[in-house]
UniProtKB/TrEMBL annotation:
Pfam families associated with the record: PhoLip_ATPase_C
Domain of life: Eukaryota
GO annotation, biological process: phospholipid translocation
Residues passing through the membrane, by range: 67-84, 109-131, 143-164, 171-193, 239-257
Keyword terms, alphabetized: Magnesium, Membrane, Metal-binding, Transmembrane, Transmembrane helix
MF annotations from Gene Ontology: ATPase-coupled intramembrane lipid transporter activity; metal ion binding
Name recorded for this polypeptide: P-type ATPase C-terminal domain-containing protein
Topological category with respect to the lipid bilayer: Multi-pass membrane protein
Domain P-type ATPase C-terminal positions: 1-265
Species for this entry: Ancylostoma ceylanicum
A GO cellular component entry from the record: plasma membrane
Length: 274
């Protein structure tokens, strides 16, 4: 990591190592583990759907949203937190050099933490899919309706998971969380309006018709678009109850583990064990 820093005086080395070195390692470990969890979660949601879809490789979530989700809807939040989050203040790190030890020993990015985040991603994927699946177990629902439940549940579970990882809450972090939650719903509402019959350029343009005739397996979804599906879902109590249940159950194991760890293994206890 030495190539990432430049110092004008040797006396700055202490702050470079104890403060910026600690923050750099801690933020990188947090960001990598979160992206590992998020990608695992995203993949396994699709896998669980395939079990009930005859392994057809079809999407239940909107294809456009599926492409944009890891790029736009869920990438900026962990990046911002990875830049500004602090587990300790600079004064604390300078006052107690022993706090640099976890970074020097590589204790925040280990095989066990890698495995825990993969397992947590699979668990949350199961919760996201099966809560949506069981919501409609007694009656029929459209593919796009199920997909909207799954997409929203996954987004809320990922956001709730990330809130548990933030150690230093600031106004920009709160704003960015609220912004992307609102952006999620705004996207689906505007997309549902854009594909209304007779109004959508995607559905009516001659070029799209020619492409669909040549590649029906690729562009067929444009003619089976989720018209008013998000609005219809959001007008029901079942949707909001399912989202609450999904979010709570998905992050409950991590929340309980963090509470237990922070209760039993305080700093004083950890130092005594050492």
């Amino acid at each position: 990591m030495a190539c990432d820093f430049a110092i004008a005086r040797f006396r700055f080395l202490r702050r470079l190592l104890l403060v910026h070195g600690h923050w750099c390692y801690d933020r990188l470990a947090l960001t990598f583990l979160y992206f590992l969890y998020k990608n695992t979660n995203n993949v396994f949601v699709l896998l669980f759907f395939q079990i009930y879809d005859g392994w057809s490789a079809s999407f239940t979530t909107d294809p456009t949203y599926t492409i944009l989700y890891p790029i736009i809807f869920s990438s900026l939040q962990p990046i911002v937190i990875g830049v500004v989050d602090q587990d300790r203040s600079a004064a604390e790190l300078l006052q107690d050099p022993s706090l640099y030890s976890p970074g020097r020993k590589g204790e925040k990015y280990t095989y066990s933490l890698f495995a825990i985040n993969v397992i947590d991603g699979i668990w949350q994927a199961a919760v996201v899919y099966f809560v949506a699946h069981l919501t409609f177990v007694d009656y029929e629902c459209g593919l796009w309706t199920l997909g909207f439940y799954i997409s929203t549940g996954m987004m809320l579970a990922n956001a709730a998971h990330l809130t548990l990882e933030v150690r230093c809450w600031t106004v920009p972090i709160v704003v960015i969380f609220i912004f992307f939650i609102l952006l999620h719903f705004a996207y689906f509402i505007l997309y549902g309006i854009a594909v209304q019959p007779g109004k959508s350029l995607l559905r009516c343009s001659p070029s799209t018709r020619r492409c669909r005739a040549s590649y029906p397996h690729i562009l067929g979804w444009l003619y089976d678009a989720p018209v008013d599906v998000p609005l219809d879902a959001m007008m029901t109590a079942d949707f909001w109850l399912a989202m609450v249940i999904t979010t709570v159950i998905a992050v409950l194991p991590r929340f309980a583990a963090k509470c237990l760890w922070n209760t039993l293994f305080t700093e004083e206890t950890a130092k005594k064990l050492k």
